[in-house]
Amino acid sequence: MIIAAIKPFKLDEVREALTEIGVRGMMVTEIKGFGLQSGHTEIYRGAEYAVNFVPKMRLEIVVADGLAETVVETITKTARTGKIGDGKIFVMDVEKALRVRTGDTDDDAL
Fold first, then answer.
1. CB atoms within 10 A of CB 93
2. Who's near 52: CB < 8 A, 6+ residues apart?
3. What pTM did the predictor assign?
4. Least confident range of 11-15, 37-41, 62-66, 78-82
5. E strand or H helix at 80, and its extent?
C-alpha cells in the first residue's frame, strides 16, 4: 500500500501518470495537514489570519510488490514542484486483499 499526500492541483497529473504505468485504481481523500511549513498566514478582507493546516490530497494505492517502486517514483516525479509542501509518500505491506463482488483475493483482487 502506498499512501501519498500531494498538493491538490497535482492530482489529475499524478492520476494520469499512474494510469499510464498500469495502476488500475486508487482512493482519494481531501485532507488538511502541516509539515515543515507549519501553515502560513493569509489576508482576508484586510485582516491577517493564520492557516495552520494546508489542504492536501491523500492517495491510497494498493499494487503488487513488483509495481510498488515504479508507483513511488512516478508519484515523486509527477507531484514534485520543488517548493516546500510537495508532500510525503509512505509504503507499507498489505496482509490481505479481497474483492467483495467476486471473492478474488490478494493479487487477483488488485
1. 7
2. 34, 38, 39
3. 0.85
4. 37-41
5. none
